[in-house]
Design a protein that fits this description.
The chain has a single domain, classed as Jelly Rolls, CATH 2.60.120.10. It has three helices and 13 strands; from the N terminus they run H-H-E-E-H-E-E-E-E-E-E-E-E-E-E-E. The chain binds fe (ii) ion.
Length: 213
């Protein structure tokens, strides 16, 4: 979180004030802040169950999120946005989303590599090409192929396309703009992963994380 906060500040990215709350800043009455709780906004640090956060992990801050009910109704808040911090060689493991279309945006920092694989109907790894859109137009990528994004560039990833990413030469601040995000039902990891891993409580929390509330 400390590294992410420094990188966000260096890139000129401001979190909403609740992103700076320490545990004691949380109001006793949660009703006025129920958007945070209901939508799962705020800090989210995961090692995907790896136990080696620096190699397999991601630090995220969910800025906004919609609801699946709105998505089903075809109106209302059907979108989500995140700010993320990824270190050099720190991998978010291969996964796809059943429903969520997501754009991953290199907001600032180094070069981001995003690698793709198609999926089969049984959610295993497929073969053949993947069709994505990199800002200006379509891009066809062979299974296992990747794109490199410099700051400002983005890739739009359709549902059911496996993807994995990491920073190449310097840490990256990433944006994610997507349809509604549901980490409990929508993510399919090729290797079983713990999306909300156990936390060893060996020091006072700087900020609460989504799983705390
Ligand atoms: Fe994803």
């Amino acid at each position: 979180m400390t590294k992410a906060e420094a990188a966000f500040a260096a890139g000129g990215w401001h979190l909403p004030p609740f992103g700076r709350w320490s545990p004691s800043d949380w109001p006793e009455d949660r009703a006025p802040v129920n958007e945070i709780i209901r939508k799962g906004l705020g800090w989210d640090v995961t090692d995907f169950g790896s136990g080696t956060y620096s190699e397999i992990g991601l630090c995220l801050f969910t800025l906004r999120n919609g609801s699946l009910d709105d998505l089903a109704d075809g109106g209302g808040k059907v979108y989500a946005e995140k700010l993320m911090y990824v270190d050099v060689g720190q991998v978010t493991p291969l996964h796809f989303h059943r429903l969520k279309q997501e754009d991953i945006i290199n907001r600032s920092g180094g070069i981001l590599e995003v690698q793709f694989h198609p999926s089969d109907d049984d959610e295993s790894l497929g073969t053949g090409d993947v069709e994505i859109v990199v800002d200006v137009g379509p891009r066809t990528v062979a299974a296992g192929g990747s794109v490199l994004l410099v700051p400002g560039e983005s890739v739009s990833i359709p549902p059911r396309v496996y993807h994995t990413f990491w920073a190449v030469d310097a840490p990256c601040v990433l944006g994610e703009v997507s349809s509604v995000n549901n980490d409990h039902t929508d993510n399919v990891f090729l290797e079983p992963a713990g999306r909300f891993p156990e936390i060893v409580e060996d020091e006072e929390p700087l900020h609460l994380v989504v799983r705390d509330y």
